[in-house]
């Protein structure tokens, strides 16, 4: 089975380091990188145009290497018959060396070419734009990873002009105005139809405003060796993105001689009088993803209610104190035998925040050696007790907070630096930290961070967190290490939401619809 490779997701600093090492250590000239980048971008532009000959392309170019990529693209599309208008803001003397070299090439071409299909415009003021012909495609080669502050004039006005055009826009490397490390808009930003990015995905394309502004993404391989990308990807702020092929490689396969216990037992501790839906969604998800035996332990007086909702999931009543929480000592008399037989534990969905229940949760987490998923009220029981995580997680725990739960646990954190924050806490707590959001991000104890590749706004509905927690525990119960289980659960759950949205849109989905689409997604996309 060929080794499936995850996609590196880099910061601007890491990308520059990759460029530098390729040029200085490998000896691949920057001019060659630019030529390859520009040619790759021209291929994407050609696919967007359908036919190139006779079509009109307007290319807005900055004075840095992003502009240089644009000059190469212009030359290639002109060679393929397009009518090309190149708009530059700066005199060639102010351009970067490689950009200037490519601009001079265009000047020579324009002087020698009698077709009249190549026009170079030096823009001193915006009035010049009105003389441009309407284009079939606009190319944003103004700024890329060199953007370092809110857009200055006249680039800012150019971006606004570009956003008013009717034709599609192709952004080179990153939409101008988008911060390539955070996905924040710095003053103004291009709203691209498509983005062709060089060498590797950039963090800013996947976070913040990136997904809304970059459109579809093409990654162009431009000659930077894979080992260089893998090494720079270890820098703070960088991450990885899983592919379907990698998830197919990680997902457990059911043995031909499996029986319900060998396929893995998941123990789900969940539910309360107030919340009888959460345990159903979590336990059902664990069974749906392939756990052979799912046992749901809930407060005794909730058991009859769950019994009407759950058929394939076994139920276990937990004794309660007269105050209404779970009775810690009596509960262990009931649970201990099952904790020995289970292969994975999920604590939290719908448990409620009764002080007795929270004490029971902390005692349970200190008591068990099982790989454990801690979600919702399981996390709330740990507020003020993060030392317990440091002491007991040891790589065996998956915490699945949403932003609010994470802030209650970790205190005030700057979540515009999601990657670094998840990296820092996963490492400090020694756990797998799955921070839900759009996109969700997974931190491993060794500092590796994953940005989820799937999912859509349909997931913004009650219960999807319970389903996700159930998918996590169901995968761990089948023997998948917690680190990979969290990445797989997100990827597969998001894929189910994508299939739902493709058929029914993003407004109508409810959490259990995810589970209805899961079998088809497992079969169609993940060969399970
Ligand atoms: N990834 C690769 O391997 C390759 C990428 N290439 C392209 O190179 C750019 C990065 O080029 P660089 O020259 O470093 O920066 P930019 O062209 O993005 O911009 C620099 C330019 O912009 C000015 N500037 C900075 N901030 C602002 C601002 N707030 N407002 C206005 N102007 C600003 C600054 O003064 C500079 O002059 C990368 O994105 C790729 O497209 C290589 O070509 C091939 C290898
Ligand atoms: K750009």
From TrEMBL:
Pfam families: Carb_kinase, YjeF_N. (6S)-NADPHX binds at residues 65-69, 144-150, 173, 278, 350, 402, 466. K(+) binds at residues 66, 140, 176. It comes from the Bacteria. Keywords: ATP-binding, Isomerase, Kinase, Lyase, Metal-binding, Multifunctional enzyme, NAD, NADP, Nucleotide-binding, Potassium, Transferase. Residues 15-230 form the YjeF N-terminal domain. Residues 243-525 form the YjeF C-terminal domain. Its cofactor is K(+); Mg(2+). It catalyses: (6S)-NADHX + ADP = AMP + phosphate + NADH + H(+); (6R)-NADPHX = (6S)-NADPHX; (6S)-NADPHX + ADP = AMP + phosphate + NADPH + H(+); (6R)-NADHX = (6S)-NADHX. Binds 1 potassium ion per subunit. AMP binds at residues 436-440, 465. Its EC number is 4.2.1.136, 5.1.99.6. InterPro entries: CARKD, Nnr, Ribokinase-like, YjeF_N_dom, YjeF_N_dom_sf. The keyword NADP applies. SUPFAM superfamilies: Ribokinase-like, YjeF N-terminal domain-like. GO terms for biological process: metabolite repair; nicotinamide nucleotide metabolic process. One of its GO terms (molecular function) is kinase activity. Belongs to the NnrD/CARKD family. In the C-terminal section; belongs to the NnrD/CARKD family. Homotetramer. Bifunctional enzyme that catalyzes the epimerization of the S- and R-forms of NAD(P)HX and the dehydration of the S-form of NAD(P)HX at the expense of ADP, which is converted to AMP. This allows the repair of both epimers of NAD(P)HX, a damaged form of NAD(P)H that is a result of enzymatic or heat-dependent hydration. This is Bifunctional NAD(P)H-hydrate repair enzyme. It comes from Rhodothermus marinus (strain ATCC 43812 / DSM 4252 / R-10) (Rhodothermus obamensis). The lineage of its organism: Bacteria, Pseudomonadati, Rhodothermota, Rhodothermia, Rhodothermales. The gene is nnrD.
């Amino acid at each position: 089975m060929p080794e499936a490779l995850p996609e590196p997701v880099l910061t601007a600093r890491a990308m520059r380091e990759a460029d530098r090492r390729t040029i200085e250590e490998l000896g691949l000239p920057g001019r060659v990188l630019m030529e390859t980048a520009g040619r790759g971008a021209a291929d994407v532009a050609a696919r967007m145009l359908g036919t190139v000959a006779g079509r009109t392309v307007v290319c807005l170019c900055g004075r840095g290497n992003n502009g240089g990529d644009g000059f190469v693209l212009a030359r290639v599309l002109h060679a393929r018959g397009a009518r090309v208008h190149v708009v530059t803001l700066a005199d060639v003397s102010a351009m970067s060396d490689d950009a200037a070299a490519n601009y001079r090439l265009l000047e020579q071409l324009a002087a020698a070419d009698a077709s009249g299909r190549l026009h170079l415009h030096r823009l001193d003021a915006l009035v010049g734009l009105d003389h441009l012909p309407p284009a079939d495609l606009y190319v944003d080669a103004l700024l890329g990873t060199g953007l370092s502050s809110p857009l200055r004039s006249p680039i800012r006005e150019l971006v606004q002009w570009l956003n008013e055009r009717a034709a599609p826009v192709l952004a080179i490397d990153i939409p101008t105005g988008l911060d390539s490390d955070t996905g924040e808009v710095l003053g103004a930003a291009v709203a691209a139809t498509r983005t062709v990015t060089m060498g590797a995905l950039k963090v800013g394309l996947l976070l913040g405003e990136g997904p809304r502004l970059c459109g579809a993404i093409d990654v162009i391989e431009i000659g930077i060796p894979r080992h260089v990308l893998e090494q720079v990807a270890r820098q703070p702020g960088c991450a990885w993105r899983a592919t379907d092929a990698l998830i197919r490689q990680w997902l457990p396969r059911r043995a031909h001689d499996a029986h319900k216990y060998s396929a893995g037992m998941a123990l789900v501790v969940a539910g309360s009088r107030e919340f009888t839906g959460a345990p159903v969604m979590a336990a059902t998800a664990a069974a749906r993803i392939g756990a052979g035996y799912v046992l749901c332990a809930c407060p005794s007086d909730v058991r009859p209610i769950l019994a009407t909702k759950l058929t394939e999931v076994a139920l276990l009543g937990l004794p309660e104190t007269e105050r209404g929480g779970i009775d810690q000592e009596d509960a262990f008399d009931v649970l201990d035998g099952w904790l020995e037989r289970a292969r994975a534990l999920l604590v939290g969905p719908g448990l409620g925040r009764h002080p007795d229940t929270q004490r029971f949760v902390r005692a349970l987490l200190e008591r068990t050696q099982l790989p454990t998923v801690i979600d919702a009220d399981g996390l709330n029981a740990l507020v003020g007790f993060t030392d317990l995580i440091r002491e007991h997680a040891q790589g065996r725990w998956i915490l699945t907070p949403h932003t609010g739960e994470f802030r209650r646990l970790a205190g005030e954190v700057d979540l515009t630096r999601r990657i670094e924050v998840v990296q820092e806490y996963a490492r400090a707590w020694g756990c797998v930290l799955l921070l839900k959001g759009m996109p969700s991000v997974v931190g491993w104890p060794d500092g590796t961070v994953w940005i989820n590749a799937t999912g859509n706004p349909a997931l913004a509905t009650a219960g999807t967190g319970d389903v996700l927690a159930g998918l996590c525990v169901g995968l761990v119960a089948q023997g998948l290490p917690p680190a990979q289980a969290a990445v797989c659960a997100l990827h597969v759950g998001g894929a189910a939401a994508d299939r739902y949205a493709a058929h029914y849109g993003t407004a109508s989905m409810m959490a259990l619809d995810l589970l209805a689409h899961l079998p088809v997604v497992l079969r169609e996309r993940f060969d399970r």
